[in-house]
UniProtKB/TrEMBL annotation:
Molecular function in Gene Ontology: xenobiotic transmembrane transporter activity
InterPro entries registered for this protein in UniProt: AcrB_DN_DC_subdom, Acrflvin-R
Designated name of the protein: Cation/multidrug efflux pump
Pfam families: ACR_tran (PF00873)
Gene Ontology CC entries for this record: plasma membrane
UniProt source species: Photobacterium aphoticum
């Protein structure tokens, strides 16, 4: 074939021109995206433990969650991040076809842990979104939790409005609760 095209340069030029035209015709049909969609093979299990130090989170949450998912198939890598007030277990899976089944399996395994501290919020297991935070900001102050939460909410508004950050989330605070304690002796006297 090389010998043929070396003896017939016009045929070689016509073939090159044909390939160039086919490429130009198919160019608009090629799918191009800045951020192509794909299903990342990662699952994240998050548990909020209000007021706990990273060491407490590591010992009481991370180690137990890692042990719970240790025997599951289709996990390539397991990593747990302990920060003040929360733990995140990140699981890298073998492929994206097993994500739906693994979400159920991981949720089942984590819900089966019965020696979590009573102060934790319900564990959340979800597929890792690649729009996850680029930056995590921890706020610590010598003030009450309501004041600290109000400051965090104000910081959230400032980041959204003044700096144009589209997605800002506040975590590590529990919802407001009202506790009513009744005097048992007084209740018995009233009947």
């Amino acid at each position: 074939m090389i010998r043929y095209f070396s003896r017939h340069p016009t045929a070689a030029n016509l073939l090159m021109l044909t390939l160039l035209l086919v490429g130009l015709v198919s160019l608009p049909k090629i799918k191009r995206e800045t951020f192509p969609e794909f299903a990342p093979p990662y699952i994240i299990a998050s548990v909020v433990y209000p007021g706990a130090s990273p060491q407490e989170v590591e010992e009481s949450l991370c180690m137990r969650m890692e042990d719970a998912v240790d025997g599951l198939a289709n996990i390539v890598e397991t990593r747990c991040e302990a920060v003040e007030g929360s733990a995140s277990l990140i699981l890298k899976l073998t492929n994206s076809e097993v994500v739906a089944r693994m979400l159920v399996d991981v949720q089942t395994q984590i819900n089966a842990i019965n020696d979590f501290p009573s102060e934790i919020e319900s564990p959340v297991v979800r597929e890792l979104d690649w729009n996850e935070p680029v930056v995590d900001v921890a706020i610590k102050a010598d003030t009450s939790l309501p004041h600290l939460k109000a400051y965090a909410e104000q910081l959230k508004r400032t980041l959204k409005l003044d700096y144009g950050v589209s997605l800002v989330a506040v975590s590590g605070f529990s919802d407001h609760q009202l506790r009513v304690e009744l005097d048992e002796i007084a209740l018995r006297q009233l009947g």
